[in-house]
């Protein structure tokens, strides 16, 4: 999914992303939708490209599952919910026990129980294998629930073998075994690995990337592909629902204005102002326009240089072209003053 805008107010940070109306895979499984092999094969390829991109950005998603794979109106898959994602660089390893238990790789539990070296990008590919298995067959390869202890899960992975559908093609079973390999060193965990799989030998990866392959399952455009009770949950159960925010903030401001000025309140307000000044508002449309304007400027300058006597380098590159890039946030020493008030670094 593409982030279009981001901004914040006194209470929340907001991110505006693409609207995907096809529902998530969990919803369709709950509606007893039977996904054919071609449909799931395309999901597998699209998620492979998604994980390859995340890996190039040093990101582990850590929560790949049907709930977090959304479909657009044409039936193409998109990965969402980076709530527990983490970044690792320069050979670093993650160690936190994070994820949804039925989809978490064995090395995550191993790292939690006995320490060890931690885990890396391979955990996402295990989760992808569990997800593909579930979407194809209707249940997961291991019977794991949130109540299972970590110790019991370690024993489960060492004693229980995955039972594959005998009707599946041999090449598909071979690929699933590679994704669901307990030892991460032997697991398929990259685009190059996936491209060597005989099951995917007929895939045009450029066409997958450009979404030129017709999806095997296209959601009905005349239906709502979500449970409306979840959409109403915030209005009913949330202690600070968004639809009452305007009234709530006005009340808070009025209450604060009536209070005597206190040094601590002033101090916290100053901290808030520092955070607000450091947070960069993002607008993809404005960025795109700047990039297009920069490109047009570069072409005009290149044409002008073409009329010279040839002594110049003729690159036609506009000066200050780097202005099109997002500016790096300047580090502010003011943030350090929040340390004595905030419970943790960066919580202001």
From TrEMBL:
<keyword id="KW-0067">ATP-binding</keyword>
<dbReference type="Pfam" id="PF00069">
    <property type="entry name" value="Pkinase"/>
</dbReference>
<dbReference type="GO" id="GO:0005524">
    <property type="term" value="F:ATP binding"/>
</dbReference>
<dbReference type="GO" id="GO:0004703">
    <property type="term" value="F:G protein-coupled receptor kinase activity"/>
</dbReference>
<feature type="compositionally biased region" description="Acidic residues">
    <location>
        <begin position="306"/>
        <end position="329"/>
    </location>
</feature>
<dbReference type="GO" id="GO:0009966">
    <property type="term" value="P:regulation of signal transduction"/>
</dbReference>
<protein>
    <submittedName>
        <fullName>Serine/threonine kinase 32C</fullName>
    </submittedName>
</protein>
<feature type="region of interest" description="Disordered">
    <location>
        <begin position="288"/>
        <end position="348"/>
    </location>
</feature>
<keyword id="KW-0418">Kinase</keyword>
<dbReference type="GO" id="GO:0007186">
    <property type="term" value="P:G protein-coupled receptor signaling pathway"/>
</dbReference>
<dbReference type="InterPro" id="IPR011009">
    <property type="entry name" value="Kinase-like_dom_sf"/>
</dbReference>
<feature type="compositionally biased region" description="Basic and acidic residues">
    <location>
        <begin position="253"/>
        <end position="262"/>
    </location>
</feature>
<feature type="compositionally biased region" description="Basic residues">
    <location>
        <begin position="243"/>
        <end position="252"/>
    </location>
</feature>
<dbReference type="InterPro" id="IPR008271">
    <property type="entry name" value="Ser/Thr_kinase_AS"/>
</dbReference>
<feature type="domain" description="Protein kinase">
    <location>
        <begin position="1"/>
        <end position="200"/>
    </location>
</feature>
<keyword id="KW-0723">Serine/threonine-protein kinase</keyword>
<feature type="region of interest" description="Disordered">
    <location>
        <begin position="243"/>
        <end position="264"/>
    </location>
</feature>
<keyword id="KW-0547">Nucleotide-binding</keyword>
<dbReference type="GO" id="GO:0001664">
    <property type="term" value="F:G protein-coupled receptor binding"/>
</dbReference>
<dbReference type="InterPro" id="IPR000719">
    <property type="entry name" value="Prot_kinase_dom"/>
</dbReference>
<keyword id="KW-0808">Transferase</keyword>
């Amino acid at each position: 999914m593409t982030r279009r805008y981001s901004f914040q107010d006194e209470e929340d940070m907001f991110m505006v992303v693409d609207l995907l109306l096809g529902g998530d895979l969990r919803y369709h499984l709950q509606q007893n939708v039977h996904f054919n092999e071609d449909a799931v094969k395309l999901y597998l390829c699209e998620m492979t490209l998604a994980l390859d991109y995340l890996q190039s950005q040093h990101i582990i998603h850590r929560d790949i599952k049907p709930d977090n794979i959304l479909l657009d109106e044409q039936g193409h898959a998109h990965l969402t919910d980076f709530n527990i994602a983490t970044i690792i660089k320069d050979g670093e390893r993650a160690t936190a026990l994070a994820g949804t238990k039925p989809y978490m790789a064995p090395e995550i539990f191993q790292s939690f129980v006995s320490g060890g070296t931690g885990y890396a990008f391979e955990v996402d590919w295990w989760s992808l294998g569990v997800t593909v298995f579930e979407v194809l067959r209707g249940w997961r390869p291991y019977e794991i629930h949130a109540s299972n202890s970590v110790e019991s899960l370690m024993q489960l992975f060492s004693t229980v073998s995955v039972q594959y559908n005998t009707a599946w093609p041999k090449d598909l079973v071979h690929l699933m075994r590679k994704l669901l390999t307990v030892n991460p060193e032997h697991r398929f965990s990259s685009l190059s690995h996936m491209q060597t799989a005989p099951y995917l030998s007929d895939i045009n990866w450029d066409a997958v990337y450009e979404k030129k392959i017709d999806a095997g399952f296209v959601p009905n455009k005349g239906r709502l592909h979500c449970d409306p009770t979840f959409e109403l949950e915030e209005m009913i159960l949330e202690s600070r629902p968004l639809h009452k925010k305007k009234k709530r903030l006005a009340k808070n401001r009025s209450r604060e204005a009536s209070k005597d000025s206190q040094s601590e309140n002033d101090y916290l307000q100053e901290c808030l102002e520092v955070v607000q000044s450091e947070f960069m508002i993002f607008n993809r449309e404005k960025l795109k326009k700047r990039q297009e304007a920069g490109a047009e400027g570069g072409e005009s300058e290149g044409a002008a240089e073409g009329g010279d006597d040839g002594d110049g380098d003729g690159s036609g590159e506009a000066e200050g072209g780097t202005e099109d890039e997002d500016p790096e946030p300047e580090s502010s020493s003011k943030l350090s003053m929040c340390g004595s008030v905030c419970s943790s670094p960066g919580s202001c």
